[in-house]
Design brief:
The chain is elongated and about 80 Å long. The protein is of the alpha/beta class. It is built from twelve helices and eleven strands.
Length: about 450
């Protein structure tokens, strides 16, 4: 007897995640069942062999396409691992004569995700040929278990079919997000930001990402058409997490789990034809750089003014090479006519940030010398408390300014020295600038608040 639950949509038969088929035989079909068992064993061995061959060829393809040590390689490895794990589990069940096609469903689903990954990227002919062999094996596997299966089309024209595939992808996204949340929490606890306000902020970003995924799941489960804006919101939230993981070292397990989440997000965008890549993120510079416009004048770079080559390189190095630079630090620089770089600002501990900033700027080609006037702020428990409370007041969930905190480089910097706060950075509107000031003034225990925020597009000459 077969118990089969299949969703029929516009002439397509779509395997859903809840599909379970239980095969039971009688003495009349014992011989047929035995022959089927032999076929299944042979099929699984062939699938295992071809998957191993594909794994080797995709490794070569990743190296040749300069994907080595990139997110693309992480995603490929994660997807291949998942397919191999699901296949091994099915093989173990078959060896024990336990035929539960939920396991078949898992193999096919993970093959589907890997197939969409192959469609999104251009690999070598050898890897594409090996993948076609794996696909053929998976088709045979579905037929042997009596499962009607179709691969997602290049372009989904049926809205009902699109919804069915989207539900599958979102369910997988929900599962991998839960796995990542667990390893992310463990990774943060062992990181150098453990117990800091920045850890609190990243937890809030993670919570916002989870809520955006839950919203997609609710819409998909209610058969509503997904709003592309909701998909882009989930992708943008994920980009903030991805940016953080690029800049901070977390355990390998955390990174592997995140690669799985990213692969499913890519599939979600792919199925719903939402244009996306992981470089599509806003990047608000937290380092203020200045170039001379006239003798003795410094112009904030957070305007649209162009930079000369040296200033661009100095800014790039400061953004890339200061791992301890946080929302509670501020560095600005000026390139003088003789290519001397003057560094100013305030940084918290560790004081290595000041020395490292000077070292990376000195290595920039064309810089004649570096004058380092960065000040290391004194250690103060009261100032540290004020930093945390100011951070929560400005970036908290109940704040309309929360969006300025998305990403690992927050737009509004909070400098606290001796109970006095200075606000630096760039905001979109004058109203936002005033809102930041009002919220900062509401923090008890501050002696004074100085608002040096700039509104995007304005020029400030000092």
């Amino acid at each position: 007897m077969k118990i089969l639950k299949i969703i029929r949509s516009s002439g397509w038969l779509v395997l859903m995640p809840t599909l379970v088929i239980i095969l039971a035989g009688t003495s009349n079909i014992h011989g047929q069942a035995l022959r089927t068992t032999v076929k299944i064993e042979t099929m699984l061995k062939r699938l295992e062999t071809n998957t191993d061959r594909f794994s080797r060829s995709i490794d070569v393809a990743l190296d040749r396409r300069r994907f080595n040590n990139t997110d693309i390689e992480d995603q490929a490895n994660a997807l291949v691992d998942e397919l191999e794990f699901a296949t091994d589990l099915l093989k173990d069940r078959a060896d024990d004569n336990i035929v539960n096609t939920f396991d078949v469903n898992e193999v096919l689903r993970r093959g589907m995700y890997l197939d969409m990954f192959m469609q999104r990227h251009d690999f070598t002919p050898a890897s594409e040929r090996d993948w076609r062999m794996v696909r053929s094996d998976l088709d045979r596997l579905a037929r042997l278990y009596g499962v009607t299966w179709t691969w997602v089309p290049q372009t989904i024209q049926s809205s009902a079919l699109n919804n069915a595939w989207t539900r599958q992808v979102i369910q997988r996204l929900e599962e991998t997000t839960d796995q990542f949340r667990s390893s992310f929490d463990a990774g943060l606890d062992r990181s150098r930001i453990d117990g800091s306000a920045y850890e609190d902020f990243m937890n809030s970003v993670m919570a916002q990402f989870e809520r955006s995924v839950d919203k997609l799941e609710d819409d998909a489960n209610s058969s509503r058409q997904l709003n592309p804006t909701d998909i882009r919101l989930a992708l943008s939230n994920a980009a903030a997490i991805d940016d953080f993981l690029r800049r901070y070292t977390l355990p390998d397990r955390t990174r592997r789990d995140w690669a799985r989440v990213k692969a499913n997000l890519d599939d979600l965008a792919f199925v719903n034809q939402v244009a996306w890549n992981w470089s599509m993120r806003s990047n608000i510079a937290p380092v203020a750089s200045n170039v001379p416009q006239a003798q003795g004048a410094r112009v904030g770079l957070m305007t649209n003014r162009p930079l000369n080559a040296i200033a661009r390189e100095v800014r790039h190095e400061l953004l890339s090479e200061l791992p301890y630079y946080t929302v509670f630090d501020w560095i600005e620089f000026e390139v003088l006519p003789d290519n001397t770089v003057l560094l100013r600002g305030e940084v918290t501990t560790p004081p290595d940030t000041k020395l490292r900033a000077e070292a990376v700027v000195r290595d920039v080609q064309g810089v004649s010398r570096v004058v380092n006037e960065i000040r290391v702020l004194p250690v103060s428990p009261n100032d540290q408390r004020l930093r945390r409370e100011l951070y929560n007041a400005i970036y908290g969930f109940n704040s309309p300014l929360f969006r300025y905190g998305i990403g690992s480089r927050q737009a509004i910097h909070i400098i606290v020295d001796g109970g006095r706060a200075t606000l630096k950075g760039v905001v979109d509107t004058q109203a936002d600038k005033e809102q930041v000031y009002v919220r900062a003034r509401g923090v008890p225990g501050l002696f004074a608040v100085t608002n040096e925020l700039m509104v995007r597009g304005e020029t400030m000459v000092r």
